[in-house]
Design brief:
homotrimer; alpha/beta; TIM Barrel; Rossmann fold; 2 domains; 8-stranded parallel barrel; 7-stranded mixed sheet; 17 helices; 25 strands; GH (chains A, B, C)
């Protein structure tokens, strides 16, 4: 477990470099990430390289004992490269080339760009692959940021045709899989297939689904090309790429297989307005972030690969609609929470706030005048606390199944305003965490033996492996409505929903309805359901019904299935029952408090804007290693469990 | 009066066909509509036809005594046709060609497409025109769905120039009619006229108005070309086209003149979110639909031609923002209501839910697994009730004048956020129905003798014939504000508003104001006005004024004119007075209840989510032929009037 | 001080001209503005001019002793000109040419269009420059209306490159000024720079800032070309251009230097929905307009040049979302208010309402049938009151600094949903007016000696001259948060915010946060802050803190600086204290009442929808020259101060 920082030596006078490195080392940082937007400084003219500044920056860091994570600069192809080739720019969904002047303007399907991506990667890998300080590499930066996974360019169209041809072999198989007999959409060859944008009304959902999959695959193959080159010159280096929050445009389980560590960029305040929280929660958590956002992504990405945070929000950012200051202590809380969830390291973005360009209002560890900002002092605290933490990874009793393919299916066909596969999953995660549970978020096909409870919030499609794992686990399984409603092409399965889940619980979804906000129902004495409701044929008596008599929850043995999407309160009620059966904690935590086992301790994190007292049952007064029973706002406590 | 269903044999294994037909016949259906999206199955390669599957489908139906409505497949030109011609695709208002991959991607002004439309129509008409089962033809499908009446293509521009030249002869006449001296918009020839989209600020409203009229005319001539060919090969067939709800982009009175029956597609739940109802009514009628939506369209299209419903919503659909399940019984209610309003038939969309492609979440009479769904059972009930119904068409005492040209004028120049000519008309219709009246919705120029009350909600322009008919009828006439405010070019008439209505009521609109929601006024002890207010010069004393002393209603003899747009409650108050004068029923019905005479009976339909009791005065307890005095939610009662 | 009217003789039968002129003269008008959209009538074919109608129109006016303001018609290039040149049309931010069919479709960077602009200007100036009636000229019309200052055409791109080259000389200087090392945006030559639209995410704010400045400069040079020609042929004429409300796309201080009088177009009801007022204020002032809108713009434009209103709203307009009627008396109030603020003249738009084309629902002084409308009668009243008014310009004790460059900086980087530099300035203006003060709105670099109070609401960047003037004035200075946070390139200044203001008040802004609506704080017993908060390092004790202990206001000697954006109530509280210190009035006026010294009198204007009584302390009962102590809605009173 280490600490790091993102650093842009090219932004600053060269003579500032040695002092910067000294201060980093003194602070207790172990590494700096550099280079990932610096193509133009590295290659100011076609083929003319200038690496002196980068050599010196690496030397400065190395001299202070810092390691270096070096980024390939392919997120920002320079203007001269764009001007020499008219087939590099991505096209947006409106059918327009995306102009130069910011970043991420390239198309993953551009063969020309791939050639230059490999070239600059090889130049860098050759030069720095053997450098003792350069122990880590990052490919590109934030694949997909600014809606860039899916490009609608002619290059993308041609590559999509090739991808379809490779997948289906015969166009008749594609026509069959997509149901193209509908609306005369039958193709006679793969070369007749267009991209699904700009149609008169919505394109075939199977068409979109394959386009989403293709687009994700293009990202993977772009990444793999760089990885192969880096491995050649730096066989022992750790390779990573940095993922984002609430972002599902490519399959992160696929990426997890192609990196040594999956890093991600955690902006708890910036993401608050982008997530699903309503206005009252947004105001309550304005300067802390949603209490489950960071945890959800830590556990999600931990399910993809070893994980870490490479960009930790240090203060106000510049890109959310509003950009508040974190409460004092929140940066420390976020850093410790990352480590508690098993993060390999936590790294702040960025070292020193830039006084110019797009991100000039984005805080750093230092202010533009080099004075320390809040993140500097709070990271200093964490650095001192590192010695209290072990490398132990805790095991979880709860698994939550999550799948990008299913999210794509619900994105493409929401069918109602209130159903979002990602947010449903996060809601279920939050309910489990509200009861104090540690949660593993796992992909389809995971072996589920050893878990006490398995949650299946929003798997529209289940693979055969998943169905088998659910059948063979001893765990209690709790399933959301709409699960199993799709086959692998995004179509209705033979025998209707819930498809393979029928082997766990004997019911058939005869039809489903969606309703707007305010039109759900309530279970007497409990919370309500919203958005989605399945009408089931079954011999089972419902466990719960709403006040209009509509079944809300069925149960058969160890398997429960909601027939209507539970609001968080209702779900928490039921999980409390299931957890209690499984011998787990089943008490609701105070509002804003979250627990997590890790680093040999059990942690409590207070996201509430008020002080919170830890339940006595959790630990004895003398067990605290960090903090104590009373947590102020932004407070962290940790104790050793016996 | 018959029942039918929409059917897509091309979606299913051929061997399922005979059983499907058997089940339809057993259910009491009289016909199936088929073929209207099946161009690619009929002509999989240019010029190579495959009609075997369609021959067989027709034989299957014929064998069971079912008639066939055959649709031309021109709503879905196949990909190979698009690829061979670059002048088929429609262009959207943003100036982009609309891509292949869904439906309705063609431009009505494409001469190339018209040639292929005539070709495929002739091929089909030749083959099936003489088939004894094929008694009905539908042209294309839902002209204008997905904003496709108005195309902004070069083909449309050229055709528009020709249309203008034919209309005006001399460009000076166009300049005069449009007032092009304003802002230097004078043209020197018709070839200088562009389409009105993408201008720096709004284009001339007269320019838009003629473009709207031209676009409607293009639909008519496209339709007429197919009709002429079908008539040639099937002179005795009934020809129809299917209209939609809340849709005004082409003139349905024009279409009425070109069909034998005007069918329409009734989706009461799907249309709820698209209509003008506020959130509380939307929640109340979520699973029933707005109580006046279907009736309004039945009566509107009955004013265009003999009418029927060809697509009746059978359950949840896939295309509204949220898609709830109808209350049990609603499909039956909607079917019976169609017949009560004089519908020639009612037909469910569709036979079996497709498990693939865009509409896979759209219910059918059967589920994808061929099990009967709710619509199957409810249609079964109706089939058994058909024998109770006669073919008698009832006559109405109330006429409501409606005009597409006037709706276009208010769409083009709303002048305020709260005025929509279509919704104003529907509001007035609803007020009359709330009092139990049957209503004829009639076009301009209709002979109005014989009516007791004539409503003129939103005729911005009145033709000379309409003005004359209003003068000569004995009926009480109730007129909305803004009526008569436009001449035939959409300009202010000589002598100002209300133009020719001044001959009915002696007032002049000196100026008009529009106000946002919440800024209207109230008539003491009654409801209020909203959105639009005319300030009138007149010697008349106002009948009603608002609390600020502003005149709201004037009356001269049998003519009343609102000077401010009445909210529904206020209007209902006044109509109750007028109806009472005319010796008609003037009591408000319980909320959600609607009455209608037809089929030799008087019907009551309960759209309320609660049970409703029919007023005793309506009928005696022993008069009920269907149902009784108490109507459950979705209940229907009918009795014979003596 | 005179009255005038906007007049379009080309819209009307020639024989109506003499009577129109007679009625204008009889009404007491001194001039008519004509010609500014009449290019096509003047030059119906390329090179064929028809000036007979215009000659006659001018003669008609001249015969009645009216002067003429003649407009160049370049806002509306005719179709034949567009068709002959493909490089005239402006392009919108989406990258599309803006079509012919309305107005303002030309690009300021089109050399072709400039040539024709100069040509038509010269033709007109030659013909009418020496005419004794033509004493005033207007260039073009409403530069920038419909988002037309900023064009994204190839012509604009090329001109922008030239402008950058002229400004920076060396591309390295541009790279340095913009911070292009960020995200590899370094350019090798000016020809690599693109326009900042359509980038994948936001372009560099310095890039935008220079593009905004360039676009403003293009307007100025377009205007200057016309001015130079007019001056040549009409050396004594007054030259003007008409500005708009709430419009900041070009620098009006620059324009002020290029005109003799800066006129503007005042639409108090039309602007209500466009301004920052919330719904309850919008409803309260629906038929009067915001009480500070007109005054703010009068004083803003008076700070640019001698000012006047050339287009005064006469009744409902056609272009706002809703278009109510002004209360009776409001047109008179608006006209008198213009004169009281020092306006050289007030002129109504337009003489007679047009019955056709885009503005047919826009009221005039006459109705389309030539009957007088409300504005006719109310202007008649004002004409009779003119003799009571002197030409004296009153001096103000309060200066408010306003700067277009700073508004652009906050437009480009709002950083929060609640900060808008223009609206912040208007809010501060309103607080001072609420206390009865007259306010000068002055540009950067103004000599501030002689003022008692100087307000600096939203100067993100301060020039050296401004900083010096603030240091040397004796006035009390009240500064808003965020002031001084930018250098001249829109970057963070050395030493951080408040930059040069640190010499007035010893504090440093360590960081700033923005918060959404509802997340501000309150000062105990007073109002609150919202949107923006600076966290300061300083030895000063805060004067005010909010209930969470956060500093809200600092003061050092005569300089105060808010650390959080005060809501209007809180600001008014503090200004009352400052005004009292300065020996000025410090009482809040009744809601809706505004005062203003001018024309030798002190005026009171009642914008409230209810009657208002003037405080006794303001004047004695026998001092009234116009009105009296009690002002009805729309009432005006004026008295002589002793």
């Amino acid at each position: 477990m280490t600490l790091g920082v993102c650093y842009y030596p090219e932004h600053w006078a060269p003579e500032m470099g040695p002092e910067d490195a000294k201060r980093m080392a003194r602070l207790g940082l172990s590494f700096a990430r550099i280079g990932e937007f610096a193509w133009a400084p590295m290659e100011p003219e076609p083929g003319r390289y200038e690496f002196g500044w980068l050599d010196q920056a690496i030397e400065n860091l190395h001299a202070e004992g810092l390691e270096v994570m070096l980024g390939t600069p392919t997120a920002t192809p320079p203007k001269w490269l764009i001007d020499r080739h008219d087939d590099i720019l991505a096209w947006d969904e409106e059918g327009r080339a995306r102009g130069f002047g910011s970043r991420r303007h390239y198309c993953f399907s551009s063969e020309t760009y791939r050639e230059h991506s490999r070239r600059i990667t090889e130049v860098m890998a050759k030069r720095y692959g053997g450098h003792p300080a350069v122990t880590m590499w990052q490919t590109d930066n934030e694949f997909g940021c600014h809606e860039t996974v899916r490009s609608y360019s002619p290059m993308a169209r041609d590559a999509f045709r090739g991808w379809l041809s490779a997948k289906y072999g015969d166009v008749a198989a594609l026509n069959e899989a997509w149901g193209n007999v509908f609306w005369s959409m039958l193709y006679r060859s793969f070369d007749e297939v267009e991209l699904p944008n700009l149609t008169a009304t919505e394109a075939n959902p199977s068409h979109w689904l394959d386009f989403y999959r293709f687009s994700s695959d293009q990202v993977m193959s772009f990444h793999r090309e760089q990885v192969a080159i880096i491995r050649q010159y730096a066989p022992d280096a750790m390779i990573t790429h940095n993922a984002m929050g609430y972002f599902t445009h490519y399959d992160h389980h696929d990426l997890g297989a192609e990196v040594d560590v999956l890093t991600w960029d955690s902006y708890p305040l910036g993401f608050l307005a982008q997530g699903p929280e309503d206005q009252s929660r947004t105001l309550r958590y304005l300067r802390q972030g949603d209490p489950d956002m960071a945890g959800f992504h830590h556990d999600l990405y931990r399910g993809c690969a070893p994980f870490a945070v490479i960009e930790q929000q240090p203060g106000p950012v510049n890109w959310a609609p509003d950009n508040p200051s974190p409460l004092p202590g929140m940066v420390r809380l976020w850093e410790l929470e990352c480590l508690a969830h098993g993060g390999r390291f936590s790294s702040v973005f960025r070292w020193r706030q830039a006084p110019f360009a797009q991100e000039q209002n984005h805080a750093g560890m230092l202010r533009p005048d080099s004075e320390p900002a809040a993140a500097f002092h709070e990271t200093d605290e964490v650095a001192k606390e590192l010695s209290l933490l072990s490398d132990d990874l805790a095991s979880s009793k709860v698994a939550l199944l999550f799948d990008y393919d299913s999210v794509w299916m619900s994105d493409i066909q929401p069918q109602g305003t209130g159903y979002d596969g990602l947010y449903v999953a996060k809601d279920w995660y939050a309910a489990a965490r509200k009861l104090g549970a540690d949660v593993d978020i796992v992909p389809q096909g995971t072996d589920l033996s050893g878990y006490a409870v398995v949650l299946v919030p929003s798997l529209l499609h289940l693979t055969a492996e998943t169905a088998e794992a659910l059948k063979t686990t001893e765990a209690r399984v709790v399933i959301g409505p709409r699960c199993g409603s799709k086959d692998e092409n995004g179509n209705i399965p033979d025998g209707l929903a819930p498809g393979p889940l029928r082997e766990l619980i004997p019911l058939t979804v005869a039809r489903s309805e969606t309703v707007p906000e305010g039109a759900g129902g309530a279970v007497a004495g409990r919370g309500g359901w919203k958005a989605w409701r399945d009408e089931c044929e079954t011999a089972l008596d419902p466990l719960w019904t709403d006040e209009a008599g509509r079944p809300v929850l069925y149960r058969e043995g160890r398997t429960s299935m909601f027939a209507a999407l539970p609001e968080r309160e209702l779900l928490t009620d039921y999980l409390a029952e299931v957890f209690a059966e499984a011998g787990m904690d089943a008490e609701r935590l105070p509002a804003g408090l979250r627990l997590r086992r890790g680093c040999g301790l059990r942690f409590a994190f207070n996201y509430a804007p008020e002080a919170v007292r830890l339940p006595d049952a959790l630990c004895s007064d003398d067990a605290f290693v960090i903090g104590g029973r009373e947590l102020p706002p932004a407070g962290v406590s940790a104790w050793r469990e016996t």
